[in-house]
Amino acid sequence: MRIDVVTIFPEYLAPLELSLVGKAHRAGLLDLRVHDLRTWTTDRHRTVDDTPIGGGAGMVMRPDVWGEALDGLLGDDGAVELLVPTPSGERFTQRTAERLAAVPRLVVACGRYEGIDARVAEHYRARGVPVTEVSLGDYVLNGGEVAALVVVEAVARLLPGVVGNPDSLVEESHGAAGLLEYPVYTRPPQWRGHDVPEVLLSGHHARIARWRRDRALERTAERRPDLVARLPADALDADDRRL
Ligand code: SAM
What we know:
This protein is α/β, with parallel strands linked by helices. The chain folds into 2 domains: about 1-155, Alpha/beta knot (3-Layer(aba) Sandwich), CATH 3.40.1280; about 175-240, Trp Operon Repressor, Chain A. The protein contains 8 helices and 9 strands. The chain starts with a strand and ends with a helix. The structure holds S-adenosylmethionine.
């Protein structure tokens, strides 16, 4: 998969060279390219913004500069998806990450100031480019770079070979079961008066699986009742229902 990120702060994306995503990049599992939007400016001051038409505070990113940047990166065969982080977009979830992990090429356009001129998304949609405006959550960040970091990491870890043991993707929170993950423990079995639950030391696989399922259900009901309400009718078996 190839991901291009366009930003006025390429340095902001430096953490993508670290850890699993950095390793995936170096191993050729993920072709990650970060571009400075100012490369596509034509004036002496390398201007990317202007005052909002209609008045108001702040500055808006110019469509002509974004157009120059995106024309080349998106091509015109509709094969490359454009992702625009914005607080007014659809919520970015694990389902979005799963969908994007199957896309061969993605371009992430990082807004700053009051955001990108609305005609940019409109123009590429009209040209047949799949455009998704995504929000990380109901709060406002200064720019799209943090959203790009989130999207690249969430998507990259789903690509084959990026996470060493693919089993660790199976039982995660927000996975296929629709539940939060059960609590996890490691050695030592006693720490500052807190004991690892006895059943996990039993070696009894079926009892461990049942205990984990129960804790996942309890935790989800307590912390995210909205997720329980969204479970399909057949998601709970008789043992689940006794909780
Ligand atoms: N005036 C805009 C509004 O109220 O919708 C906010 C612009 S924000 C200061 C600048 C940029 O940060 C946005 O263009 C977007 O790229 C990014 N951004 C801010 N909050 C975000 C969020 N919750 N999710 C995704 N991107 C966000």
